[in-house]
Write a structure and sequence with these properties.
The complex is a heterodimer of chains A (about 325) and B (about 280). By secondary structure, chain A is α/β, with parallel strands linked by helices. Chain A is about 40% helix and about 20% strand. Chain B has one domain (about 10-280): Thiamin diphosphate (ThDP)-binding fold, Pyr/PP domains (Rossmann fold, 3-Layer(aba) Sandwich). Chain B has 11 helices and 7 strands. Classes of the chains: A alpha/beta (about 325), B alpha/beta (about 280).
Chain lengths: ~325, ~280
């Protein structure tokens, strides 16, 4: 069953296509936006910008270090560069360039890491960005965005472009279920969205896992557990208020992400929870393992990133909550 | 930049500036108790020519003037030289120099963009500056500004792949207003470059990447200015000026000892060095 189906949601277009459309929209709106490509424009869909604004599009080639450096130089000229490639290649090849030239210099550059997570599927683990959020977490000035559907992707690309300062935006290859209305999507950097109310526990998710979390919430409701679901689309700055309120009001938290558990969204949420209002937590994500080539759905199943896995974690954390209240 | 106006008096004045910059570098690093004086000394004449020979167009009172020529210190460990030149040019109070590497000071061990006016780039992890320079060139095209961009490269950092990525791309984009200046002092941290890593043939390498290549004596200010002027008129390719320099130039016992790379002079050594430099 497709992600979001149990929650009655319909799949949107593949996220990479949505990103391409969103990027084209900000290029139309803002003449200071330029796009730099690491020769993957037909995969990341920045080719739309190449076709429409060739004078503002630069294929820097398969040379990510130079790609980031050139983008940083353009940011220093008061332009707004979107530096784009697969998150795995861009971040792993050019981390030091992102660190010095973008983050430490606090430049107004935007970094797209496409094909995040394991759902790029058959191209296999060499292409999968499963450590991107941890790496970006290591850059103190970097705002980190992970949109969860088409509407929030559009809103995130616009918000990132308008924000002054370095931003990382994670995209994926696959379609995600539509969670938000196409118009008037709530998206404020640093302000998490509660996409389902509930008081027995909270599921905090990002990206594809928000749809999965909504599926899990339906299954949990059938068991009599009302789960709050939070779309944590911004990993830096973290929405301390929403996370602390979830801890106080629901007393149990599950996090879900298509990323390594080590250094990922869940570990950052756990730090805030531990500091402010400790409650039982469980974490759904990738253990210390590299995935493999396969259909995305089979990968999600095998690497335990399904609604079933969230439900299991929710039952456990709710039990722990009841146990700690005895 | 119009023609080169270089009479005896002007050359003498520029030599005096070079001497003063060396003294500042010496005092800064000795006071800090660390830093890279020898890597700074080798490029003193290069920055003297750029900043004080009328090559760079800049406005110290308007440091981010969009039309300014850019100078990017890719070999970030020569930060003391950059700071000394910027202070001398009037970007900030010279007293700041004595705060090099002190807690709470903007005068960081390696340059950090945004901390001091005139510092165009964060460098210190080597190999990154040429890409930034190319970004300024491409940005200038969009902004319809025709400034020149100068990037000072260390020789050791030409071992980094990113330098050659940027070299390839700069030629591809015909970044003819981009000029790299190589401070070819022949030594990297652990020893002579010829022993540690085969960089040569440098001229053939850069030419094969589509660059115009010149070679000059990197301590002859007049020669540096002349070639800088020449390459500013090239319109078909980016240029690199390979300046042959001496690491530690100006202080005999530093010139003879490459282990001074990441090391300041002790106070008694500094006194001897000051005497030698002062006579120049």
């Amino acid at each position: 069953m497709a992600v979001g189906a149990k929650a009655g949601l319909h799949l949107g277009a593949p996220m990479r296509d949505v990103f391409g459309d969103a990027l084209l929209a900000v290029c139309k709106e803002n003449p200071r936006v330029v796009v730099l490509d690491g020769d993957l424009g037909n995969s990341t869909k920045t080719e739309l910008v190449r076709q429409n604004f060739p004078e503002r599009f630069f294929n820097i080639g398969i040379a990510e270090s130079n790609l980031v450096g050139v983008g940083a130089g353009m940011a220093a000229c008061d332009l707004i560069p979107w530096i784009t490639s697969f998150s795995s290649f861009l971040l792993c090849n050019a981390y030091d360039q992102i660190r010095l030239a973008v983050a430490m210099s606090n430049l107004n550059a935007k970094i797209l890491g496409s094909h995040g997570g394991i759902t790029l599927g058959k191209d296999g683990p060499t292409q999968m960005g499963i450590e991107d959020l941890a790496l970006m977490g290591g850059l103190p000035t970097m705002t980190i965005l992970v949109p969860s559907d088409s509407a929030s992707m559009h809103a995130a690309v616009k918000a990132a472009t308008d924000h002054v300062g370095p931003v990382f935006l994670r995209s994926s290859r696959v379609p995600m279920p539509d969670i938000y209305p196409a118009e008037d999507t709530p998206f404020e950097i640093g302000k998490a969205n509660i996409v389902r109310q509930g008081d027995d526990l909270t599921i905090i998710a990002c990206g594809l896992m928000v749809g999965t979390a909504l599926d899990a919430a339906i299954a949990l409701a059938e068991e009599g557990l009302q789960a709050r679901v939070i779309d944590l689309h911004t990993l830096r700055p973290l929405d301390n208020e929403a996370i602390s309120a979830a801890a106080r009001q629901t007393g149990a938290i599950v996090t879900a992400e298509e990323h390594l558990l080590q250094g990922g969204m869940g570990s950052n949420v756990a730090r805030l929870v531990a500091e402010n209002y400790p409650v039982p937590m469980r974490f759904v994500g990738l253990g210390d393992v590299y995935a493999e080539s396969a259909d995305p759905d089979d990968l999600l199943e095998k690497y335990r990133l399904t609604a079933k896995d969230i439900v299991q974690a929710a039952r456990e954390v709710h039990q722990a909550k009841i146990g700690s209240n005895l | 930049m119009s023609g080169i106006d270089l009479n005896e008096d002007k050359l003498k004045a520029l030599k005096g500036i070079a001497r003063d910059l060396r003294l500042d570098i010496l005092d800064m690093t000795t006071k800090a108790g660390s830093g890279h004086p020898s890597s700074s000394f080798s490029a003193v004449e290069i920055l003297t020519a750029l900043f004080f020979g009328g090559i760079l167009r800049y406005r110290p009172d308007e440091p981010w003037w969009p039309e300014r020529d850019r100078f990017i210190m890719s070999k970030g460990h020569a930060a003391p030289l950059l700071y000394a030149a910027l202070a001398r040019a009037g970007y900030f109070d010279r007293q700041l120099l004595w705060q090099l590497r002190q807690i709470g000071s903007p005068v960081q061990g390696h340059p950090i963009q945004g901390m001091l006016p005139g510092v165009e780039a964060t460098t210190g992890s080597l190999g990154q500056g040429l890409s930034l320079g190319l970004g300024h060139i491409l940005g200038g095209r969009i902004n319809q500004l025709d400034y020149q961009v100068y990037v000072l490269l260390g020789d050791g950092e030409c071992e980094a792949g990113q330098i050659w990525e940027a070299a390839m791309a700069a030629a591809h984009f015909n970044a003819h207003r981009l000029t790299a200046i190589l401070d070819y002092n022949k030594y990297q941290e652990t020893g002579p470059i010829s022993r540690e890593m085969a960089l040569e043939p440098l001229v053939a390498k850069w030419e094969s990447f589509g660059w115009g290549v010149s070679e000059v004596d990197g301590h002859d200010i007049g020669e540096i200015m002349t070639v800088l002027h020449e390459v500013s008129n090239v319109e078909t390719k980016p240029s690199i000026i390979i300046t042959h320099t001496v690491k530690g130039k100006g202080v005999s016992f530093v010139e003879q000892d490459f282990t001074f790379h990441g090391r300041a002079l002790k106070p008694e050594q500094a006194e001897k060095a000051r005497e030698e430099i002062s006579w120049q």
